[in-house]
Queue: 2 jobs
Job 1
Amino acid sequence: MENRNKGRGGPLSRRSFFRLAGKTGGAAGAVVATSACEGQPAGGNGWVPEQYNAKGNFPVQVRGRVPIDPANLSIVRDDRKCILCGQCAEACDHVQSVMGHYRLPLIDTIPCVDCGQCSLWCPSAAITERDDSTRLLRAIADKTLHVVVQMAPSTRVALGEDFGLPVGTNVEGQQIAALRKLGVDAVFDTNFSADLTIMEEATELVGRIAGKGRETLPQFTSCCPGWVRFCEMFYPDMIPHLSSAKSPMTMMGAMIKTHYADRKGIDPAKIVSVAIMPCTAKKSEAARPEMNGAGRQLGRPEIRDIDIVLTTRELARMIKAAGIDLTALPPESCDGLLSEYTGAGAIFGNTGGVMEAAVRTAYFLATNRRPPDALLEWQPVRGLKGLKEASVAIPGVGDVRVAIVSGLGNARQILDRVRSGAKPWHFIEVMACPGGCIAGGGQPRSAVPPSDTIRQARSGAIYSVDERATIRLSHENGEIKAVYESYLGRPNSELAHHLLHTGYTDRSMHVATGNRRD
Amino acid sequence: MSKGVLVDLTKCVGCGSCTVACKMYNARSWIDDRAPSAGPSALLADENWTVVRKVTVDRDGGTPAWRFVKQQCLHCEQPACASACFARALQKTEDGPVVYYPNLCVGCRYCMVACPFDIPKYEWGRSLPLVTKCMMCASRIAEGQRPACVSVCPTGAMTFGDRGALLEQAHTTISGDDTYVKHIYGEKEAGGTSWIYISDVDFSKIGFKTGMTEKPLPSYTEKYTHLTPVVGGAWGLVLAGLYVFNKRKKTVSKRDVDARAAAGTGEGDGTGTGDRP
């Protein structure tokens, strides 16, 4: 460098070079030092939804989100996807009347009925079911295990939506085929155990009306785990009114590990009982400690009725992950023994469905006569209205008055009336999710939030199964009759009580409600 | 009028909306692997300006109770961090927030040492790290809006307003309800903070630093830090004096040597006085 400069004739010694550099640097430093502007303070370079940006201190109507216990067995949330739109809180507070319907401070639990409606409202799918699909894959991969799957009534009329089929397409046959392709060993239909539930629950109802427990009328249905949990937390005084019949899912689980295992000669401990459900609350229901009816009966209480519960959404993801085109599969049918179903069992997925099915059979149980045709198309209990009432004259019993609610916010209205002494009803069906299981918290997100159009289409698909069915009364189900003849004895028998009935727990000490009994 | 936030811990349900709002508004990343922003092990960190920590406490009867504690910078009335910062990178604004100017920060981290609540965090993972902490959404307050965390809270656990009015409100609440602890955290701690808390569980049981001084922390050092210009000036004078003294000493000794050489003693070479150029 020095040489080059010399060549040009400009003498630049090392000393003068450093002097020049020093002066330049010093000048630059002085400029920076004297002009050192504060610049912008840190933070504030992101965004929040517009409703939060107004001046003043007025509360924002739709704000925040629901609290979710990280230990919740049914639902989880990915904080990175949450945009604080407030929709989950809307669903929880205004539809389900859970969030905001307890006093603060909290006690030792985050009140949640696990219904999963928030996961259907969440626009960014930050809230989802707790994914248990890898547990099923592991079970399938283990050749020493016998994997038995049951599929709920509502899953077949919604699964197709995740494969581009029109809303309400019934893909029962393809769903069974897909499950077999995934590698499960047997597929049973929860529609069968819905019929079984009717046998138990209708017998119980007829018994209560006949006098054994009139004080516990009205009888409430108990197949919806979201509703059961809601009752245990907020209306523990109503627990005696709950039917002791388990849900179809857990009844099936108990039958699989006893009757099916026995018939097949399989060690029940080697059976993995899997349930495909439209519901997130079914995950926590399966984990309830008392849901080991089969295990207790066998003297091995570690055996669970249900080992894994997957939502319709999880099943759809598993089928896609396996590269199976559901729409192209030739339909298959379920394995025998625990799969035959009637139109009555099929309509369990609709609000009013359990009621219609139960009353059909209750009519028969009380009169020993076939119910009139009007009860096969019982319009007053159908439809998406949140609160429905009807009555039917049963000879020898009189007028049986029933009510049907879906959506826990609607349930509160009925419960408050029952609690205040108004008890004009004999039987009340409660479904936590508006519209019933067809719009359960584990169903495909085909509209966000779920719309009545979608509910109507799925509901219609379920009623058409009933219409087309040759047998529409649970007590005429051939496999049901066989199960009672060869195994259970009769409805509400001692064995049936051990396997198919359950008890409930007052959880109100964990939730500070205005209605708490202290 | 200085603003503040009143947190009623009995109303917090632990939904974590506030932590999400903070991440969104301040564009911070999620680092739940090393520092969760909610749950029992929630931890303030460079990316977590606010967290909601779940605490299980034993109540009087021995039954456990869940409480959720929102943590963030308390925005002291007289912040120690700002007093420790010689670059004026931390400043208490008239609105209340203690804000941080990254452009001014030299990275000395005195603020982190000074803070009695252990709030400022350092971006250890970055090659050009900055100090970070809650800004109380100063830019929103300047526009008449509430801090992001306050505006999203679904249960109304936080109230934003003039600090004086909030203190009054807090006093009314705790004196009218026996379940509350008769103490307003932040009313006097460290000379008072912009964020104040009321609770139904003893503050020491839910992770608050209790029994701390009510004197503003800067007041401990103010007396002598105010002497800094005097000390600096005096030191300059001392050094200048030494310089003049040394220079004169050199001149005198050179003159002596020169004088001796001129006298022709001839013994000057190599017997130097060490002042060769």
Note: The CA atoms of residues 168 and 254 of chain B lie 78 Å apart.
Job 2
Amino acid sequence: MSKLVRTIGWLLYAPILIFGFYVIMHGHLTPGGGFQGGAVVASGFALLIVAYGAKGAGLKERLLSAVESGGALIFVGLAFLGLGATFFYNFLAAGGGVVFNELVPSGPNPGDLNTAGTLPLMNWAVGLKVLSGLGSIVLLLALFPGEEE
Amino acid sequence: MDAVVQVVLLVVILAAGFLAIRFKDLLSSVVALAAVSLALSLEFYVLQAPDVAIAEAGIGAGLTTAVFVLTLRKTRRKEEER
């Protein structure tokens, strides 16, 4: 692509990634979540692939594939870890675990990040799966041999 | 005020969708389709569904545009006359 597209892509890549990871991290407090944040991060990957080409973007198919499988395994693994009560039981919430263990304050509040138990972890699992899945779709399409290249 | 914004957004969606069909240059058509997605995501935001708006902006305006641009680079840019 042209130098204009390359420069703007290079400038916008980091803000897009930060916003996507922010949406994943705050999935249990604000609109959005794993899927939406992962889609935003994947659109950042797509921007980089369109601007710099499949080779120049520096994304590895095998790494993306491994992260995708890892996200799915973390999601199902967390669901199985709650099996003492039920499948998908939120065993970390309200003092049950090390992280995300605080009680949700009552009344109107700006939202406490350290709440909701396994939900943020599952948001991260879904986010990793979605960002690597959609990213590898675009990467493989760019690697596909075409008519003119 | 809300109704005015919605009417403007729907008119933009219709106009950009019509242009996406009519353009002979397929790259312009893809950009018009991205404009449809952008206006649609703003419309979702006005309708108080910010969740759907983020998904629409990420997937509709970002990923599908990238997929179409990559596909156009590997095929022909102009639509054939019939």
Note: Residues 3-143 of chain A form one domain.
